[in-house]
């Protein structure tokens, strides 16, 4: 399954980057979102996929019962998801504001902050 | 000796402030420093002449072999005396030359930095310290040439001098590092002991070439000679001090200092002799061509520097003797003549020798000093210059190779320089008296002092040569030859070949002087320098670099986000991809058996939704598909044991979709801006990155998992942190500071979002 997921990561990266290279700012945002999904999945795969077995210690034990999933990538991804959302929210609002101010959603026309 | 070097730097910091507050005192203070240094070094001539060597060492960065170690031997002493003595006169002169100039404090500061660096250069025993002082002289020369920075010609001359000498500086650094490598030490005194090892070392040829490039750029040797005449944009005191008496002789100093270590080999001797001889002839010819008095002097300096270079290249005892004596002589008369040129420029505002005449009646003292200095330059008895010329002919006649050619070249050069001496020291002062536009109040004493003292010394030493022969010249020659030398100088040796050659030189020179206008025209006709010379090469190189920089900026800094991304991705694919293929080859795909249907379906949904997003023609569609990707990711997290991630992913994705929908209706219709070709290009590079990332993932997970960190967290989350959910414990306990940072980022983002939503400009900026 690891192999299949590696291809999914590749697909997410390819699509994300392709959209980021478009000139429409909305596509840029979507691309950014896909890219962060791809990165999260990449991190997740680094911990090797383990079915079931969340890294949680059962009530009667002092450590999780093997096999359990690697907790470290999960902690990193958790942070990444939240930060990714923060970035995305900021980018969305920034872009909306830029569009209101400059009257275009074409990135190639957003080369100056001067309004004439 | 450390104090002697450092005092100049320290004083230079204080001078601008002092000059603003106590102007008159400062003028005298800046003279006092070099003068006291001059006295100090003069007193040292006795012990040095007796064969002593003074040294002192101060640790600077001992771990890399860099020390402020100073050694005073005969050669250093000769330079130190010239630097401090002429320095004192130049500072005195500047106070008159720049009377009332608002930038005088700044000028003093630059000049002090220069003096201190130059002293450091000639006293350093450590080659790295020597390099640093060498570069400091280049920098202060830049500041001084560009002192009058409001004129563009001064700025470009300053930049030219800096660029040419800093090319040499880089060569010097490389050469000295190699030398240190070959000799096993950065101390010159150590290197001298290792000379056999250095000469047979495989780095010998690169070292010699690099050191020669450094010396030739600094001392304006062909083909780098062009910067020196252009440096005449500098004020007269600077031209006197840096560009005739001291700094341009740094290259000569370097050759003299290293000749005991590197000299003797054919590559050293041959190259230096040839380059020196060419420079000598070119300098003399170009000096005849010019009409600007300072440029004439500059080219004659180039010529003399050529003479010194080729003498050092010859390396025989007679040649070194002549070189040391000539260096001393030249510093005296040329500094004097530059100061005179400054006085003429200052008083009349004219530097064209064809327009200057009859100044002797207006400035008699200056005229007298100029005449004596000019006679020394022309090499007439009983002046010091005559002794130098005799020594010069002795050296060429005894040269180990091509002595007739060299003697002829020296004869021609000397004859031309006799004419030049006439043009600059006689021409402006005789003939019809000029009418000056302003009422002239006499040259101030501070300005005439320099030329008078220097010319007087030339006469005095000529009459009593053994005043300096035993004390200064002998020990300097001894230092260059690395063996003791006792030299007796005398004005007349009786009827010798040398005397005959001197007479012939003078006769030819006088003829050339009388026919100077015809000669000037003849030289100008054969001058290819302006069209094909090194100066042209310099400006072409400079223009080429600017054009290249502009082109590169236009391509790389286009201002289009997609082009930036494209370049970044292409480079990443190229570099990382090639590495991946080289180390892993084409990977075999494994683990197909371990696939369950529902997992595969989820992965398929992600890919399908991604394709939908890329191809979507409406925004709503792509937002919904993005939601599908997010939720499928959540399902993957659930399947593979990450319920926390799944929960977070579900809630964040819901928020994202809502956010995007909120923004959505404000934007214009979904437009396609790019052409099909652009799309194909971007798709190709994006797919390449996708393949690369897949490959990276497979390569990274091809090795079995070893993670001590993860098992530590799993072991201890309950025992140490009393938490059963390991992921949560990592976030809030083991790595709590990271989480704090994350919260801060979110808070900043939230503030940003809020201010962008709520705060509005007041109409003027939208």
From TrEMBL, chain A:
Its main location: membrane. Pfam families: Oxidored_q2. It is found in: Cell membrane. It comes from the Bacteria. Belongs to the CPA3 antiporters (TC 2.A.63) subunit C family. The chain crosses the membrane at residues 6-21, 28-49, 75-95. Keywords: Cell membrane, Membrane, Transmembrane, Transmembrane helix. The keyword Transmembrane applies. This is Na+/H+ antiporter subunit C. InterPro entries: CPA3_antiporter_subunitC, NUOK/Mnh_C1-like. It is a multi-pass membrane protein. One of its GO terms (cellular component) is plasma membrane. It comes from Candidatus Abyssobacteria bacterium SURF_17.
UniProtKB/TrEMBL annotation, chain B:
Residues 678-758 form the MrpA C-terminal/MbhE domain. GO terms for molecular function: antiporter activity. This is Putative monovalent cation/H+ antiporter subunit A. GO terms for biological process: monoatomic ion transport. It comes from the Bacteria. It is a multi-pass membrane protein. Residues 64-108 form the NADH-Ubiquinone oxidoreductase (complex I) chain 5 N-terminal domain. The chain crosses the membrane at residues 28-54, 74-95, 107-134, 161-182, 203-222, 267-289, 296-316, 322-344, 365-384, 404-430, 442-465, 485-514, 563-585, 597-614, 621-640, 646-665, 685-703, 739-757. The keyword Transport applies. Residues 124-407 form the NADH:quinone oxidoreductase/Mrp antiporter transmembrane domain. Pfam families: MbhD, MbhE, Proton_antipo_M, Proton_antipo_N. Coiled coil: none annotated. The keyword Flavoprotein does not apply. GO terms for cellular component: plasma membrane. Residues 604-669 form the MrpA C-terminal/MbhD domain. It is found in: Cell membrane; Membrane. Keywords: Antiport, Cell membrane, Ion transport, Membrane, Transmembrane, Transmembrane helix, Transport.
């Amino acid at each position: 399954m690891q192999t299949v997921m590696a291809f999914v990561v590749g697909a997410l990266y390819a699509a994300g980057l392709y959209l980021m290279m478009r000139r429409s700012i909305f596509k840029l945002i979507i691309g950014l979102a896909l890219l962060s999904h791809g990165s999260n999945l990449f991190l997740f795969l680094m911990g090797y996929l383990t079915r079931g077995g969340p890294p949680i210690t059962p009530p009667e034990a002092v450590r999780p019962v093997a096999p359990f999933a690697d907790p470290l990538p999960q902690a990193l991804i958790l942070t990444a998801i939240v930060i990714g959302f923060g970035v995305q929210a900021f980018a969305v609002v920034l872009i909306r504001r830029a569009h209101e101010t400059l009257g275009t959603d074409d990135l190639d026309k957003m080369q100056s902050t001067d309004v004439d | 000796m450390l104090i002697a070097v450092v005092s100049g730097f320290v004083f230079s910091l204080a001078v601008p402030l002092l000059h603003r507050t106590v102007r008159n005192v400062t003028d005298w203070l800046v003279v006092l420093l070099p003068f006291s240094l001059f006295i100090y070094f003069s007193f040292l001539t006795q012990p040095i002449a007796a064969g002593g060597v003074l040294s002192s060492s101060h640790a600077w960065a001992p771990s890399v072999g860099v020390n402020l170690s100073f050694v005073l031997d005969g050669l250093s002493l000769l330079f130190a005396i010239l630097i401090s003595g002429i320095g004192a006169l130049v500072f005195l002169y500047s106070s008159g030359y720049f009377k009332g100039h608002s930038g005088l404090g700044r000028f003093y500061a630059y000049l002090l930095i220069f003096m201190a660096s130059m002293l450091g250069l000639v006293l350093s025993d450590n080659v790295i310290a020597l390099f640093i002082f060498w570069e400091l002289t280049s920098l202060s020369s830049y500041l001084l040439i560009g002192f009058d920075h409001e004129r563009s010609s001064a700025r470009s001359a300053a930049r030219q001098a800096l660029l040419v000498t800093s090319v040499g500086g880089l060569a010097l650094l490389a050469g000295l590092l190699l030398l240190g490598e070959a000799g096993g030490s950065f101390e010159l005194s150590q290197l001298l002991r290792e000379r056999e090892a250095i000469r047979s070392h495989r780095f010998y040829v690169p070292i010699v070439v690099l050191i020669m490039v450094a010396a030739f750029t600094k001392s304006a040797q062909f083909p780098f000679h062009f910067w020196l005449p252009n440096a005449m944009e500098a004020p007269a005191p600077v031209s006197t001090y840096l560009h005739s008496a001291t700094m341009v002789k740094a290259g000569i100093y370097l050759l003299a200092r290293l000749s005991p270590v590197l000299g003797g080999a054919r590559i050293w001797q041959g190259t230096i002799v040839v380059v020196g001889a060419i420079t000598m002839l070119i300098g003399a010819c170009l000096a005849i061509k010019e009409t600007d008095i300072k440029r004439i002097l500059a080219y004659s300096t180039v010529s003399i520097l050529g003479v010194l270079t080729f003498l050092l290249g010859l390396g025989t005892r007679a040649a070194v003797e002549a070189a040391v004596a000539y260096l001393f002589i030249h510093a005296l008369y040329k500094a004097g003549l530059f100061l005179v040129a400054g006085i003429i420029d200052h008083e009349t505002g004219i530097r064209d020798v064809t327009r200057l005449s009859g100044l002797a009646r207006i400035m008699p003292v200056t005229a007298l000093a100029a005449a004596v200095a000019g006679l020394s330059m022309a090499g007439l008895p009983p002046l010091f210059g005559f002794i130098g010329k005799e020594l010069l002919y002795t050296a060429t006649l005894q040269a180990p190779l091509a002595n007739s050619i060299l003697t002829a070249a020296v004869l021609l050069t000397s004859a031309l320089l006799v004419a030049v001496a006439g043009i600059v020291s006689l021409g402006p002062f005789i003939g019809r008296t000029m009418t000056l536009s302003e009422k002239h109040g006499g040259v101030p004493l501070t300005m005439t002092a320099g030329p008078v003292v220097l010319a007087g010394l030339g006469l005095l030493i000529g009459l009593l040569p053994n005043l300096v022969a035993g004390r200064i010249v002998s020990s300097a020659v001894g230092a260059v030859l690395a063996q003791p030398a006792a030299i007796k100088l005398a004005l007349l040796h009786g009827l010798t070949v040398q005397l005959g050659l001197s007479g012939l030189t003078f006769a030819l020179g006088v003829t050339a002087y009388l026919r100077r206008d015809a000669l000037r025209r003849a030289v100008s006709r054969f001058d290819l320098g302006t069209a094909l010379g090194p100066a042209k090469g310099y400006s072409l190189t400079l223009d080429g670099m600017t054009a290249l920089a502009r082109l590169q900026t236009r391509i790389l800094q286009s201002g289009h986000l997609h082009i930036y991304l494209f370049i970044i991705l292409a480079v990443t694919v190229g570099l990382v991809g090639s590495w991946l293929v080289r180390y892993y080859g084409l990977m075999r795909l494994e683990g197909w058996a371990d696939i369950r249907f529902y997992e595969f379906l989820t992965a398929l949904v992600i890919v399908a939704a991604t394709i939908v997003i890329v191809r979507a023609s409406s925004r709503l569609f792509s937002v919904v598909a993005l939601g599908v990707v997010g939720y499928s990711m959540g399902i993957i997290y659930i399947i593979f044991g990450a319920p926390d991630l799944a929960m977070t992913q579900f809630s964040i994705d819901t928020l994202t979709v809502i956010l995007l929908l909120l923004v959505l209706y404000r934007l214009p219709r979904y437009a396609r801006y790019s052409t099909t070709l652009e799309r194909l290009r971007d798709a190709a590079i994006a797919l390449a990155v996708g393949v690369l990332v897949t490959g990276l993932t497979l390569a990274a997970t091809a090795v079995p998992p070893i993670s001590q960190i993860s098992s530590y967290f799993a072991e201890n989350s309950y025992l140490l942190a009393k938490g059963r959910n390991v992921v949560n414990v990592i976030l809030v306990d083991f790595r709590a500071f990271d989480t704090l940072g994350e919260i801060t980022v979110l808070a900043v983002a939230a503030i940003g979002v809020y201010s962008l939503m709520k705060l509005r400009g007041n109409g003027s900026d939208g």
